[in-house]
């Protein structure tokens, strides 16, 4: 019989290699726990980053909507000016805007 001569409570598994397989299973289970913990923390970090990026995108959307409104209003005013007899004033304003644009571009380029 298999368990004869074995220590009490051992059931003869020492001789059959059961404890070797059990130890290997424990090592593999611990390795799996470590990997699952690492993946869980990585997933939590990814979720946090996604929430942060969504917040930034939402703020940018609001800013672009606001800027679009300002540009629309400005274009409306420019159209009103161009329809009137003030085309000379309109040309001066456009030249001034181009001048300011090039000055800012030049300042940024020097940095």
From TrEMBL:
Protein name: BET1 homolog
Subcellular localization, as worded in the UniProt entry: Endomembrane system; Endoplasmic reticulum membrane; Golgi apparatus, cis-Golgi network membrane
Membrane-spanning intervals of the chain: 89-108
Main location: membrane
Assembly description: Interacts with SNARE complex members GOSR2, SEC22B and STX5. Interacts with LMAN1/ERGIC53. Interacts with STX17.
BP GO terms, sorted: protein transport; vesicle-mediated transport
Family: Belongs to the BET1 family.
UniProt keyword Ribosomal protein, yes or no: no
Keyword terms, alphabetized: Coiled coil, Endoplasmic reticulum, ER-Golgi transport, Golgi apparatus, Membrane, Phosphoprotein, Protein transport, Transmembrane, Transmembrane helix, Transport
Organism listed in the record: Sphenodon punctatus
Topological type in the membrane: Single-pass type IV membrane protein; Single-pass membrane protein
Summary of the function given for this chain in its UniProt record: Required for vesicular transport from the ER to the Golgi complex. Functions as a SNARE involved in the docking process of ER-derived vesicles with the cis-Golgi membrane.
Gene Ontology annotations for the cellular component aspect, listed alphabetically: endoplasmic reticulum membrane; Golgi apparatus
Domain T-SNARE coiled-coil homology: 19-81
């Amino acid at each position: 019989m298999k368990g004869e001569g074995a220590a009490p409570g051992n059931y003869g598994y020492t001789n059959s290699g059961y404890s070797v397989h059990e130890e290997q299973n424990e090592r593999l289970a611990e390795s799996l726990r470590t990997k699952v913990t690492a993946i869980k923390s990585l997933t939590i970090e990814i979720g946090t980053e996604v929430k942060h990026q969504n917040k930034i995108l939402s703020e940018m959307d609001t800013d672009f909507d606001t800027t679009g409104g300002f540009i629309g209003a400005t274009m409306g005013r420019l159209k009103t000016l161009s329809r009137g007899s003030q085309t000379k004033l309109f040309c001066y304003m456009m030249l001034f805007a181009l001048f300011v644009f090039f000055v800012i571009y030049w300042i940024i380029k020097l940095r």
